[in-house]
Design brief:
This protein has 192 residues and is of the alpha+beta class. The strands form three sheets. The protein has a six-stranded mixed β-sheet with strand order 4-7-9-10-11-12, sandwiched between helices. A three-stranded antiparallel β-sheet has the order 1-3-2, with no helix packed on it.
Length: 192
C-alpha cells in the first residue's frame, strides 16, 4: 500500500488524476493506494450483490461508489458494496462521479470484504467501523474469509451492536430480515 506525503483536501482528491488506473482512498488527507482484490474477495462481493438484487431494486446497489466519512482530515472510503436509500440514489443521479458526500444521505448498508493481513484487519474492524458509525450508516458488514466469519454491525442509538455469524449460521440482518444465506455460503460465494 502506497501513501503520499501531501495532505489533500476533498476537492483536491476529487480532482486528482495520476494518469494511471490505480485506485485510491483518502485517509485523513493522505492519498492511499487501494491494493487489488483477491479473486475470492471479488467473488464474495459479486455474490452478495446478486443476492441483494433479489431483495432490493438494482438502482440502490453500488460497487465502487465512494463514501465521504469523518476523520481528522478529509477521508473517503471505497467499500466493496453499498446499498443506498432512495434519497441517496436520487442525490447521486446525474453526478459526474459516484461519491456519497457528507451533505448526502448515508448508505443504509456498507459491506467490506477483509483482505489478508493485520493492516487490513485493523482498517476494516477499527477505523472504518468508527467512521461508518459516525456517518450514521445503519448497517455495516465485515465479511472476513481469513477468520471465517461475517460480522453484522447494526446502528442502535448511534452506536454499533455486533452479531457474529460463522459456519451454517443463518445471517439475519435487520435491513434484509428475509435473507436466506448462511455465513458459509457467503464466505465461499456459493449457494448450497
Amino acid at each position: 500500500m502506497i501513501a503520499t506525503t501531501k495532505i489533500f483536501t476533498l476537492e483536491e482528491y476529487l480532482a486528482y488524476d495520476d494518469g494511471t488506473d490505480k485506485r485510491y482512498e483518502l485517509v485523513n488527507g493522505e492519498l492511499v493506494e487501494i491494493p487489488s482484490e483477491s479473486d475470492l474477495n471479488n467473488a464474495i462481493a459479486i455474490f452478495l450483490l446478486l443476492t441483494f438484487s433479489r431483495l432490493t431494486p438494482g438502482r440502490l446497489l453500488r460497487r465502487g461508489t465512494e463514501v465521504s466519512v469523518s476523520g481528522s482530515r478529509a477521508t473517503v472510503r471505497v467499500p466493496d458494496l453499498l446499498v443506498l436509500t432512495e434519497e441517496a440514489a436520487t442525490a447521486l443521479s446525474g453526478s459526474a462521479r459516484s461519491i456519497i458526500t457528507s451533505d448526502m444521505p448515508p448508505p443504509v448498508l456498507v459491506v467490506e470484504v477483509v483482505s489478508p493481513g493485520k493492516e487490513n484487519e485493523n482498517r476494516d474492524y477499527r477505523y472504518k467501523r468508527s467512521q461508518y458509525e459516525a456517518r450514521g450508516i445503519a448497517e455495516y458488514w465485515i465479511v472476513d474469509p481469513e477468520s471465517d466469519r461475517v460480522v453484522v454491525l447494526s446502528l442502535v442509538d448511534g452506536l454499533y451492536e455486533q452479531t457474529i455469524y460463522q459456519g451454517n449460521d443463518a445471517i439475519v440482518p435487520p435491513i434484509f430480515p428475509t435473507l436466506e444465506l448462511t455465513a458459509k455460503q457467503l464466505l465461499r460465494a456459493e449457494e448450497d
